[in-house]
Amino acid sequence: MKKTAFISHPDTLLHVMDGSHPESPARISAIKNAVMNNHVKDKLSFYNASSAKIKDLERVHDPLYVQHIHDIAPKAGLVRLDADTAMGPMGLSATLHASGAVLKSTDLVMQEKVHNAFCCIRPPGHHAGRANSAGFCIFNHVAVGASPMHWRNTRLNVPQSLILTYIMVMVQKISLKTIQTSCYVQLFSIPITHIMALIQPVIE
């Protein structure tokens, strides 16, 4: 029986915006601790994420924005990207590996090596636009993974992708604008209570 891929990377724990920021390494630690102390771990195959390449990001992000993020990544201290988002010395590596995790998840699933996948990553990506950071997010990882160019380059016959989310409509618009290929990508939002009803039998 195929397992669920659990994809992460050590650098997700090293991305720090400031000591009091709600988007903190503690989120990753809490998820990993919960998984490792539950029988669900026996249903998982663990993978380390690779770093997304510039060409992966430029399929959905403005090349000038991608280069700008690489150029301003600090070797020390913090660089503030917007009112909610900052990047420290490990921020670039963390976000590149986060996008890389989603790319790896799509490859593993579409090549039928696993049944499905969970990416334990940070910073998040769902608020990031084509040429801007927002809401703790630098690159839009789901958009990178759903990019039809990725499917074509890996020679996988995928006519459409479906993004299922419980987040707000604003984020749906950002993700579709970032992908800019709505004829290939469909995005739906359902209440979190409905999602929990679907996954509860899996985690019990």
Summarize the structure.
The chain has one domain (4-155): Histone deacetylase domain (Arginase, Chain A, 3-Layer(aba) Sandwich).
Describe the overall structure.
The protein has about 200 residues and is α/β, with parallel strands linked by helices. The protein has a single domain, classed as Arginase, Chain A (3-Layer(aba) Sandwich). It has helices spanning about 25-35, 55-60, 65-70, 90-110, 140-145, 150-155, 170-180, 190-204, and strands spanning about 5-10, 45-50, 80, 85, 115-120, 160-165, 185-190. The strands form three sheets. The protein has a three-stranded parallel β-sheet, covered by helices on one side. The protein is globular, with a radius of gyration of 17 Å.
Task: Give me the number of helical elements.
Answer: 8
Cα-to-Cα separation, first versus last residue: 18 Å
Portion in beta strands: 5-15%
Shape: globular
Q: Which CATH architecture?
A: 3-Layer(aba) Sandwich
Helix content: 25-40%
Write the element-wise H/E pattern from the N-terminal end onward.
EHEHHEEHEHHEHEH
List keywords for this structure.
single chain, 204 residues, alpha/beta, Arginase, Chain A, three-stranded parallel beta sheet, two-stranded antiparallel ribbon, 7 strands
Show the helix and strand layout.
Elements: E1 4-8, H1 26-36, E2 44-48, H2 54-58, H3 63-72, E3 79-80, E4 86-87, H4 91-110, E5 116-119, H5 141-146, H6 148-153, E6 161-165, H7 169-179, E7 185-189, H8 192-203
Parallel strand pairs: 1-2, 1-5, 6-7
Antiparallel strand pairs: 3-4
